[in-house]
Amino acid sequence: MSARQAASSGSDSDPRYANVDERKRKRMISNRESARRSRMRKQKQLEGLVNEVSKLQNENNQLMQGINVGRQRLMAMESANNVLRAQAVELTERLRSLNSVLQIVEDVSGLSMEIPEIPDPLLKPWQLPCSVMPIMASADMFQY
């Protein structure tokens, strides 16, 4: 018999070795239980992180949709603004033309006519040519 076998066979009858084996067995059980609890904690932590990733991805998608809606609204407003600027330039040119006709009529007829100065709305947008009419905003301008 080898020394190892002799020691193991002797441990069955020797109470000293039985006590050591019992401690080893309890430690092994305790270690297994601790490892199981650790795996469960890690699994719960992983599930929490997966849920958080999912939540953040949903939030990110919602933000991207909001950004896209905002971009579309911005493009629509810029387009409408460009149309209004073009109309303002056209109307300013028409007013200048009419004022030049009035100037010719004044020169030919000798009648004194009041010809107002035409402000340039593109250079000074805060000076409105028609200050009599207030600008009204409607609630539907701000709907999505």
Automatic annotation (TrEMBL):
SMART domains (UniProt xref): BRLZ
GO molecular function: DNA-binding transcription factor activity; protein heterodimerization activity; transcription cis-regulatory region binding
Entry keyword Nucleus: yes
Subcellular locations according to the entry: Nucleus
Residue ranges with Polar residues bias: 1-12
One Gene Ontology CC term in the entry: nucleus
Domain of life: Eukaryota
Pfam name, any one: bZIP_1
Basic and acidic residues bias: start-end ranges: 13-23
Keyword Endoplasmic reticulum: no
Gene Ontology biological process terms in this record: positive regulation of DNA-templated transcription
Assigned keywords, A-Z: DNA-binding, Nucleus, Transcription, Transcription regulation
UniProt region (Disordered), positions on chain: 1-44
Record-annotated BZIP domain positions: 21-84
PANTHER family found in the cross-reference section: BZIP TRANSCRIPTION FACTOR 44, BZIP TRANSCRIPTION FACTOR 53
Protein name per UniProt: BZIP domain-containing protein
Organism, as annotated: Populus deltoides (Eastern poplar)
